[in-house]
Amino acid sequence: MQKSHLKWRILLKTDDKAILSVLLYQFLHGKSAYSSFKEFNKVVKDNFISRDDFKFWFNRFSSGKLDEEDDNLSISDMKKMLSDDKHRLKACIFFEYLKEIDKILIPEFCHEEVFVAYKRMSQVVVIRY
Question: Has this prediction a pTM greater than 0.70?
Answer without folding.
Answer: yes
